[in-house]
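tool=predict chain=A
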Amino acid sequence: MKILAINGSYRGDRGYTRFLIDKLFQGATEAGAKCQVLTLSCLKINRCRACSQCQTAELRHKCVYDGKDDVQMIFNQMAEADIIVYATPVYVFGMSGLLKTLLERLYGHGDSSDLRISKSGLMFHQIDDAICSKSFVTLVCCNNLENETPRNALAYFRTFSRFSDAPQVGALIRNGGRLSGYGQDPECMKQISKISKVYAAYELAGRELVTEGHIRRSTERQANQEIIPVPLFNILKHLRPFKKVMIAHAQEMIDDMEG
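tool=predict ok
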């Protein structure tokens, strides 16, 4: 099995997104998978010009940028993979522009005049199944602890799944990135005991992708759990007075780290 992760972080291989990908891939590799990461910040990805050359009869599926950037190489790697991991931090309540720019180039691999109905009953057009319909995992990370923060990115990939007949075989949502030291601070690991269980769940998720073809719900819950060591935190964090206390404590932690 080959699993391909597309890292949409602007921090590239230095960011928390890559750290989480590596945890996932540690388990997948142990289970026998061949894993590869494409770091978009290191590649050239031109914006779609909406010129529609790719939709003409003479140049169907041929983009004006073919051979001029790295997108075709990325799509070739996607076609060879069994599972794709779309990984991104949250930027202004959505996926990174890097990842969105890449996905917009999928337009050149479909025939917009060939109308069809997806398996989920949605009207769409012909797409390149070898690229668009792959089983995939969504991996989204952010600093904020609010459930609302990653909502747009997650909703996008649910919609993508339904239109593209692409099975979503896992959804990993990791908040509190700064609080956990982005996986690089041993002191944060000591202070937040739950984070080690989270990373263990990522490794288990990788193994499950290989052995079962999807991430179990129980493993997702462990990977996506709140890391704040406060009973009923998931409920308390929606209360305004509690949020004020949390902000005060968080500011103290930030001041200590920067001091």
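Residues 84 and 136 are 5 Å apart (CA to CA). The chain is about 40% helix and 20% strand.
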